[in-house]
Each structure stands twice: as structure tokens, then as C-alpha cells.
Design a protein that fits this description.
By secondary structure, the chain is an alpha+beta fold. It is 34% helix and 24% strand. The chain has eleven helices and twelve strands. The strands form three sheets. Strands 8-10-7-11-9-12 form a six-stranded mixed beta sheet, sandwiched between helices. A four-stranded mixed beta sheet has the order 3-6-4-5, covered by helices on one side. Strands 1-2 form a two-stranded antiparallel ribbon. β1 and β2 form a beta hairpin. α2 runs parallel beside α3, α4 packs across α5 and α4 crosses α9. The two termini are 30 Å apart. Bound molecules: adenosine-5'-diphosphate and magnesium ion (MG). Adenosine-5'-diphosphate binds next to β4 and β5. The site of adenosine-5'-diphosphate has 13 residues, from β4 and β5.
Amino acid sequence: MSLGEFDLIRRFFQREHPQAGVEVGIGDDCAVLRPTPGQQLLISSDMLVEGRHFLSTVAPERLGHKALAVNLSDLAACGATPRGFTLALALPRADAAWLERFAAGLFALADAHGIQLVGGDTTAGPLNICITVFGEAAPGQALLRSGARVGDDLYVSGEVGDARLALEVFRGDLSLAGDAFETVRRAMELPRPRVALGQALRGIATSAIDISDGLIGDLGHVLTRSGVGARLEVDALPRSRILAAQPLAVQRLCTLSGGDDYELLFTAPAAARAAVEAAAASAGTRVTRIGRIEAEAEAGLRLIDEQGSTVPPTFDAFDHFKTRHG
Ligand code: ADP
Ligand code: MG
């Protein structure tokens, strides 16, 4: 690149505080990491493409935060302890002011989780950010999508739907007062990966996934991988006061098929309710029981409202609420 690929890397991404477990970070052909003896390595990558996963107007600090947050969310969903990450970056130009702000958002979140950027790649091209995260868990402790069992409770962390509500406002399909919009916009641009909760649920949850593409779709992955069905109490889904003030159809759309929530959806045996509560308290994250795992033969996924009636998936009928990215 023109500013000098190596100057750019040195100036914005290479930092002077090497961490325990990182023998060689940025600057050689490979990073050299020392795994914790006896631990398994968990790896995940997520790519963010301008115009598809983020708007060109997003503040660079928030983009740096989100690029790492969505990756940490995958480690959280597996109950892994984050250890490090790499960053592959395509940049339309070497814009120092932009890079400085992007790096500030990225490293603030990295520091909050005690992880180091250990390598990557930098090239000219349409703005594209790909991060790979590395984490650890003891053998057999990783939370997987395949472990849900009939009779398990179904839970979700935090609140769902605000990121989708913000997207609808950006698209001009809905409008919100200024401070309400700022609040839901933060949910979309500054998701908080539930890393502490994922770790606290090791040995308690039977399965877990993070909600990136919408609760129903992501729950579907758990049900398919586990070979089970579920009953989902749609009115029990935790949502913000801002979303709760919207028409019911909008609430259903945003909570059920919104996406970009980065909350954890997980299952645990009914006998583990106190342990789930204790894990949530230790992580400082609210969790809500939203349904139950059933035998697959019964009906796949059943959506039930407060009155106990089956809810037809009417949220699909709002055709200006188009389905999002994959
Ligand atoms: P190579 O050509 O051997 O793959 P590069 O010249 O692309 O290596 O990169 C030089 C060093 O800078 C490597 O250690 C690489 O991991 C690191 N690096 C390149 N781009 C980034 C980036 N965006 N963030 C962090 N490290 C990077
Ligand atoms: Mg290279």
C-alpha cells in the first residue's frame, strides 16, 4: 500500500506490550503462541464487508469494536477463554485519521478481554475486515450446538431486537426520537460479547450459540445439530423499553428474526436452574428463560404466545422488512 504497508502496521497495529503466552507477535512470518498445557484450542473467523455488514457512515472506533466483538461472541458461544487474534484488512486508502480511530476501538475491546493482536495481513482493496480469534477451553468443556436434550430449558442473555430496530430506522422504514435512536444504534454498533457468561456456563449449559442472524434461525441451528424440537415463548423474549413501545408485529420481527444481537442462546437441564442463575450473576449478565426443548417428532419449533396459542410466523409477511445478510 502507498503509506507503506509496514509503516502502517507498525504505526497502528504493532504495540509494545507483549503478553504471556505470545512468544512472537507481529513482525515475523508467523506468530508463535504458547498454548496453556492441557487446553484445547478454539478458532473462529468473521469477516465484515462494507455495505453488507456495516454502513459506510459508522464511526471508525465503533467499526473496530464491532469487528472484534462479533468474533469474541463466537468464542463466548463456545465458552472459550480468549487468547489472541489476527486481523486481515483490505483498505481503499491508507487514511491515518481513520486507522487511528479504528485501532482505538479495536484495542479498547482487546484490552478489556486481555488479548493481543498477534498478526494479520494488509492490502489495498474495498474496505473489508476479517478477524480470526483464538481461545481455549479444557477438553470436553466447549459449549457446542449439538448438546441440547429433550426437557432442557431454553435461555437467552440480555435483550434482543434493538440492533434490527436501528437498522429499520437507518433504512427509513421506521422512525424513532433522537435519544431512543442513539440507544438502539449503540446496540447495533457496539455489541458486547458475552464472554464471561459463556465461560461461566461451562459444565452447566448443554448447548449454546450466539445470535448473529436472528433468534429463530440461530435456534434452528441448535435444533438441527441436536436433533430436537423446541417450544419458544415469544412474549417472554427480553426486549428494551424502546422496542416494547413499537407495534407487536415490529417487536416480533426484531426479536425473532432481527439478527446482530450477539446475545447467547443456550440450553440447560431444568435441574440446573439455580446454577444458571449463579452463572449469570457471576458474569453480571441477565438471562431469561424463553422456552423448552421438545422431541423433534412433536413439531420442530413451536412459537407460543402469552395465551398459549400458536403464533403464525406473520413477521415474515412484512415484505419491506427484508431478510438480512448471511
Ligand atoms: P507476509 O508477507 O510474510 O505474510 P506481511 O509482510 O504481510 O507478512 O506482514 C508483516 C507482519 O505484519 C506479519 O507479522 C503479519 O502478521 C503482520 N501484519 C500484517 N498486517 C497486519 C494487520 N492488519 N494487523 C496485524 N498484523 C499485521
Ligand atoms: Mg502479506
